[in-house]
Every structure is written in C-alpha cells, then in structure tokens.
Design a protein that fits this description.
2 domains, 145 residues, 3 helices, alpha+beta
Length: 145
C-alpha cells in the first residue's frame, strides 16, 4: 500500500495586531458593555465575535477571515457583507450595530400618525357638531360662542 502525504496549508488562526486595532477602532469594541471574543473555525480560520450585554451575552456580530476575505455576519448567521478590505468590513459592522434601533423610531411615528388621524376624524367633527347643537338648543348661549 502506498501512502501519499498531502501538504497541509499553514493555519492563520490568530488575528494580527493590526487587524484587531482596525476592528477595535472602527467598531468601538468594548463600548456600552459589549464584550468581544476571538475564536477559530474547524478549518483554522480566525473569527471575532461581538457579544451583547451581560448576562445573556448573545452574539450580535461575527467577523471571519476566510483565506484573504473578511466576512461579516449578524447574530443569526445571516451574511451582511463580504470583502477583502478589513476597514470596509468594519465600517459595515459599525453601521449594522447602529441600525438596530430603527424599529423603535418606526413605532413612534406610527403612534403619532394614529393619534393625529384619530383627532382629525373622530374628535374634530364632535367639536363642530357640538357648536351647532348648542346654537340649536340654547340660542341664548350661542352669543358667547
């Protein structure tokens, strides 16, 4: 039996210091109670996890380096962005972290529009009809209106 030795590719497991500085400066690692952790995939690719606040510390974002590409995923594993430039991927990560509060703004706008609609359609007609009823049933008080 012949045994063929395959050449293994060297593992680039750890993040370099410049990569970590780029990510830390752009994403503000450790900001607002967020923690981060590094890891390695089964294939030896480097990963950085941005964790949420304690006690859950759910994964909010994941940046992976696969070969020469950087991959940005959200906490559910959905691909957000992929590129060879780490600063560009980090900028997209910062934007993804900011965009998490837009649902609150949308709800506030919907409540405001609902209140305005209710005032315009329900309360305003009662106010004008109230003046007409007052003139009809109490003409003496109509002079004060």
């Amino acid at each position: 039996m012949n045994v063929i030795a395959f050449q293994r590719k060297p593992l680039q497991a750890a993040w370099s210091e410049t990569e970590l500085v780029t990510l830390a400066d752009t994403i503000n690692l450790g900001h607002r109670g967020r923690e981060w952790e590094t890891g390695i995939t089964e294939n030896g690719d480097a990963q950085l996890y941005l964790l949420g606040p304690q006690p859950e510390q759910a994964c909010e974002l994941c940046v992976s380096r696969v070969g020469g590409r950087y991959i940005l995923e959200d906490g559910t594993g959905r691909l957000l962005f992929e590129h060879r430039s780490l600063p560009l991927v980090a900028a997209h990560a910062r934007t993804a972290l900011r965009g998490t509060r837009w649902w609150l703004v949308a709800r506030i706008v919907m409540v405001w529009c609902t209140i305005r609609h209710m005032l315009h359609d329900e309360i305003e007609p009662l106010m004008t009809e109230g003046e007409e009823l007052l003139v009809h049933f109490a003409p003496q008080l109509a002079a004060f209106v």
